[in-house]
Each structure stands twice: as structure tokens, then as C-alpha cells.
Fold this protein.
Amino acid sequence: MDARLNFFGDPAVGQVLKPFMAAGKAIKSLPLPASTHELVALRVSQINGCAFCIDMHTKEAEAAGETSVRLHLVAGWREATVFTDAERAALELAEQGTRVADGAGGVDDEVWAAAAKHYDDEQLAALVAMIAFMNAANRLNVITRQPAGGYKAGQLH
């Protein structure tokens, strides 16, 4: 499959994507555990069906030392016993933040409170920014049919 747009070869597209990618790097530098960052990115990408991002975040998580068992269980995290309470809170926040159109109230107070129990304000800001960024990145990739499978860990960092 060929992508509809060449994100890195077309100068016009690059004008938009370079600042967008810089925002992603800034978000990644915020004080959120790397494992949480990758698990959230992976779960948002699974929900949105973004194969490119699923490929990327699986490989980035593996490179950072994440286990294959945990990566395989992200889609079924509620029933899996391998995630901490903090990770569960982040994954629930990611799901509700991604599926805002499915719930009349967006992220409910109980989910926010669970996340706030485990993360300070700076980390919550990082989570919210990460969820929003991943949703935007997923849409860019899905709309333009970016192919998956060839990503190498560190390629975009």
C-alpha cells in the first residue's frame, strides 16, 4: 500500500508536520513514565485503528524494555493482571479521552479522580497532551493511509 501523502518528502506537507512532530517530542519530554507514555499511545492507536502508530509504539515500547506480554494485553487491559493501578487509570483516561463522541460527558469525574490519585498535575497535563496528540497523529496517518510494518525504533526521535 502506498501512502496518499509523503509526509517527509513533500515540502508543503513538511511545513505542517515539522511543528507537529516537535510538539510530540515536547510532550514526550514531560515527566510521565516512558512505559505509561507508550502504553497510552498504543491504546489510543488501537482504538483509532492506526496501524502505523501501533507499529511504532509497539516497537518503541519494546526498545524501552516493555515486555511482549504487556504489549499483547494492552487491548484487553481491564482483564489483564499485568498493569499497575496507575497504568490502569491512565489507560481508562486515554480510552474516555479518545472516545469523547461516544459519551455525552466526555471524561467522567470518576476516571479523572482515579488518574489524579496516581499522577500529579504536571503528569496529568502530560497525559492529556499525549492523548490529544495521539488522536491527531492517528487521524493524520489513517486519512493518508500511512503503511505499517517498516518502522524502526527511534526512527522519528
Q: What stands out?
A: Residues 33-143 form a domain with the AhpD-like fold (CATH 1.20.1290.10). The CA atoms of residues 50 and 141 lie 7 Å apart.
